[in-house]
Amino acid sequence: MSLPSNPITIVIVGAGPAGMAAALSLHHQGIKDFVIVDSLLAGQNSSRAVVIQAATLEALDTVGCMDKLLKIGDQNNHFGVRDESSYLFSADFSLLAPYTKFPFGLVLPQTSTEGAMLEAMKERGIHVLRPYKAVSLKPSAENEGVIDVEFESGEVVQAKYVIGADGAHSVVRNEAGISFTEPGNGQEPDLGNVSQLILGDVTFSSPPHFPDPKYPVFTSIANNNFLLIAPFPAALSHDPERIEYRVAAGVPVEDGTAPHAPSKEYIQSVLDRCAPSVLNLPRIENTYWTSRYRTRAAVAERSFARLAGGGAVLLVGDAAHIHSPLGGQGMSLGIRDAISLGAALPAVLAQDDGDRAAVDKLLTIWAGERHKRALGVVQITKGALGMVIAPRTFMRRIGFALLRFLGRFTLVQRMVAYRLSGLAEI
């Protein structure tokens, strides 16, 4: 499909989970004058996030995606983090039943999440225009309050609103002149062994035996490092004879820069060094996707801006915030950004040709709320990182002992689950 030649109301740049969620939310609100574009051909994405939290499941339910996702995902009721010897704390998501229809985390690879969302879009007649790479945003010389979105092909789309869902290296954000820095003093901290993470979708020579079957996702912070092993739904495995797992682990400092696409042998060497002995992990048999991730946090100075000339730019997902993947919050937060924006835009568009000050007030309120949510998630993930890299001192032993003691109580398990679920930040 080709780009529209006439001015439209909204262009969504980026068709990852946040961009698709924005499209579904706009359509659900009765807003049809928009297009969604992406620089990649269909199928050129990759598996990154592995869990959708309860608050995000609630949001996706409002735009009609849940039936598809529930059919393919595994429901995980418990999440625990252990150190070298035992579990430090846990979250029991089943305790959230009074607060949500989805008292669990839904485990499935991001590619499957995107596939379900793409199918839902097609059912509504929404098609992603590919491959169109946005390269610049400029005020229109012909129409006040309109932005010219120029693409690498030289084609231009005119729109009143541009939604940037184009990731951490967002062209939309950069063209709007919005800063993107580490919260606080702007300085990136030294994160030691978790400064980089390696990720892979793998099968093992035999099924791993986790220490407690109550926790189907294994997470540890042993050996001053982080390790996650999460099984994908059996039906989604590349090998019908093997369960496929997402593994994520910190790169030991002595390794230097990890390979961009780590080999099976390299991932195995990292697991050998960071897995606690209690796990007795089998050998990796096959790898289907691998990647390296540099751990950092950055939040856009604002998620709403007007270009000179009056066109509006709005940011969602990784274009607005990035942070450590510890805690599984990134994709979930981005989807909630986008769906909340779709819900906010009808009131904005109702005044679009009238009082611009009133419109800007509505968008500023939305952007401020999302900024606050992003800072809250950064705080959660920084706390998790701090636990991993804390030096092995007497105070660390005391702190971990306190965590083990408090973690026995149902109230604490509910509080941890409520925070991780996103319901506290919805």
TrEMBL record:
Q: Does the keyword Transferase apply?
A: no
Task: Please give one Gene Ontology molecular function term for this protein.
Answer: FAD binding
**Cofactor annotation:** FAD
Report which superkingdom the organism of origin falls in. Answer: Eukaryota
InterPro entries in the cross-refs: FAD-bd, FAD/NAD-bd_sf, RIFMO-like
Sorted alphabetically, the keyword list is: FAD, Flavoprotein, Oxidoreductase
The reply to whether Flavoprotein figures as a keyword in the UniProt entry is: yes
Annotated FAD-binding domain ranges read: 9-379
Its protein name is: FAD-binding domain-containing protein
Organismal lineage: Eukaryota, Fungi, Dikarya, Basidiomycota, Agaricomycotina
